[in-house]
Write a structure and sequence with these properties.
elongated; five-stranded mixed beta sheet; 14 strands; alpha/beta; about 20% strand
C-alpha cells in the first residue's frame, strides 16, 4: 500500500516587501523585518492583530527601521499588548523599545530557559542568541484565551525549538501563528540544550490534533495545509532517526562521521546548523533507549544499545 504521509516540500519563493504591512488574513497583517540571513530567511515576521486595540506578535530584532515600520502599520491605534512566540533575539530584542513606544505590556511564555540543564563542561551554542534578561508583564500558559474585540486567541504551548515557545490560534478561523515551530521555508532548528527534540516532536503531534489548518510562521510565507505539512516534518525527523540507527547498527560512529554520512554534500554555511540538529536527534535516541554514547579511541561515539 502506498504511503499516505505527505511529502516534505519547502517553499522558498516568499518575497515580502520589507517594512510594508501585508494583510494575510482578516485583521491579521504581517510586517517583515530587515534581518534576512541564513537562519532568518527573508527576515522575522511581526504580526499586527485586530482593529483597535491591536496586539503585536513578535516585535522582532532591535532595528530602528523595523520599529518605525511597526509604528506606521499600527497608525496610532492602541496596542493592548506585545506578544512573543519565544525569546530568541530575532523575535524579542525590540520588545523594550516597542513597549515604551506603544505604552504596552509584554506577554510571553515566561523568561528564557533551557529545555534541560547544562551537563558537566557543556556549553550552549545558542546562548548568545537568547534573550536572557527580558521578563514578561504577563506569563502566558497553555490554554490561556486572549480576548481582542470579537477575536478569541488561544495560547498553545509548543516547546521544542526552545522551552518557552508558544503558538497563537484564532478561534473560529483556520489561522495559527506558528512562530518558529513550523516554518514552510525550512525545517526548524532544534539545538540542545536550548531546545529538545522530544518536545519538538510532541508539539508537532499537538498541533496536528488541533483544528487550525493555515499556519502563519515567523519566517517565510503562509502554510496552507499546516497539519499535513506538520505530518511531513514528523516523517522527516523519523527518517533522520532511522538513518542514525542504521549507521550505528553497522558499527559505532562519532557524531562527525554521522554528519558526513547523512549530509555528504552539505554546503559549509549549513554545517553548523546540521551539527546542532544531529546532536538533538542523538540525544532523543539516547532518551528513548535506542542508542547510547560512549568514549572510545576516536572520542565520543554513538552505539546501538
Amino acid at each position: 500500500m502506498a504511503s499516505t504521509t505527505p511529502s516534505l516540500v519547502f517553499d522558498r519563493d516568499f518575497s515580502p516587501n520589507i517594512g510594508v504591512p501585508a494583510e494575510v488574513a482578516p485583521d491579521i497583517s504581517r510586517v517583515t523585518a530587515p534581518n534576512a540571513g541564513a537562519y532568518t530567511f527573508t527576515g522575522t515576521n511581526s504580526f499586527v492583530i485586530g482593529r483597535e486595540p491591536v496586539f503585536v506578535v513578535d516585535v522582532g530584532p532591535d532595528d530602528p527601521d523595523h520599529l518605525e515600520a511597526l509604528v506606521r502599520a499600527i497608525g496610532g491605534r492602541k496596542v493592548e499588548a506585545l506578544l512573543l512566540t519565544h525569546t530568541h533575539k530575532d523575535h524579542s530584542a525590540l520588545a523594550h523599545k516597542a513597549a515604551e513606544a506603544f505604552q504596552a505590556p509584554i506577554w510571553f511564555g515566561g523568561p528564557h530557559r533551557r529545555s534541560r540543564s547544562l551537563k558537566f563542561l557543556e556549553t550552549d551554542p545558542l546562548e548568545a542568541s537568547c534573550d536572557w534578561v527580558l521578563r514578561p508583564d504577563r506569563v502566558l500558559v497553555d490554554g490561556d484565551e486572549l480576548a481582542l474585540g470579537d477575536m478569541r486567541i488561544s495560547v498553545v504551548a509548543t516547546p521544542g525549538h526552545c522551552a518557552n515557545h508558544i503558538a497563537f490560534g484564532f478561534a473560529g478561523t483556520p489561522y495559527l501563528l506558528s512562530g518558529d515551530h513550523v516554518m514552510g521555508w525550512n525545517s526548524t532548528l532544534v539545538a540542545v540544550p536550548d531546545g529538545s527534540m522530544r518536545d519538538y516532536l510532541a508539539s508537532l503531534d499537538k498541533l496536528i490534533a488541533l483544528d487550525f489548518t493555515t499556519y502563519l510562521p515567523a519566517h517565510g510565507g503562509a502554510i496552507s495545509n499546516g497539519p499535513d505539512y506538520a505530518r511531513a516534518l514528523l516523517a522527516h525527523r523519523g527518517l533522520r532517526n532511522a538513518q542514525i540507527l542504521d549507521l550505528v547498527g553497522k558499527s559505532p560512529k562519532t557524531p562527525d562521521a554521522l554528519l558526513r554520512a547523512i549530509y555528504p554534500d552539505l554546503p559549509a554555511e549549513n554545517r553548523f546548523a546540521a551539527r546542532l540538529t544531529l546532536a538533538a536527534h542523538i540525544e532523543y535516541l539516547v532518551e528513548t533507549g535506542a542508542v547510547r554514547t560512549r568514549f572510545g579511541f576516536r572520542g565520543r561515539e554513538v552505539a546501538r544499545v
